[in-house]
Design goal:
Number of helices: 5
Largest sheet: 4 strands, parallel
Strand order of the largest sheet: 2-1-3-4
Mean pLDDT: 89
Order of helices and strands: EHEHHEHEH
Helix content: 25-40%
Strand content: 5-15%
Low-confidence stretches: 1-5, 130-139
CATH topology: Rossmann fold
Structural class: alpha/beta
Shape: globular
Number of domains: 1
Radius of gyration: 14 Å
Number of strands: 4
């Protein structure tokens, strides 16, 4: 098994990590989901940089969840640019959390709300694959 597949088939989470409260909520939610064993955090910058092993991991057929802080949808645009399909998606502002340019404003109840939405989306996509046929490192 190649190194890019060491997530044991768990889903991959890609977070925007933007410079706002909602961007940082994506990081906190991703860390919580990874720590709880729900999925493994991947590197969105690596996907945007077309790092071969990272792209292969995202295309391997495991569930992929993109968590964007806002409707600008930077993470979604990166994954779409790669041609990945069938991935899950959460926009934190669509949960009713207002975007503010304060990276230190990540209250626990908003993290919990974001994690809950992400778990629902992970459950929804758990049976689907988000891959580019034939390009996955595990195929």
């Amino acid at each position: 098994m190649s190194d890019c597949c060491k997530n044991d088939g768990k889903g991959l989470i890609y977070v925007c990590a933007g410079g706002s409260n909602v961007g940082q909520l994506t990081v906190e939610a991703g860390k919580a989901l990874d720590s709880a064993g729900d999925a493994v955090m991947g590197c969105l910058a690596g996907l945007g940089g077309h790092v071969p092993g990272m792209v292969a991991s995202a295309a391997s057929g495991v569930p992929v969840l993109v968590i964007d802080g806002c409707s600008i949808a930077c993470g979604k645009k990166i994954v779409d640019h790669l041609g990945l399909q069938g991935y899950g998606y959460v926009d934190v502002t669509a949960l009713g959390i207002k975007k503010e340019h304060n990276v230190n404003k990540t209250p626990a109840h908003q993290i919990d709300e974001t994690v809950s939405a992400c778990r629902k989306e992970l459950a929804r996509i758990s049976k689907k694959s988000s891959n580019i046929p034939g390009s996955g490192c595990c195929s």
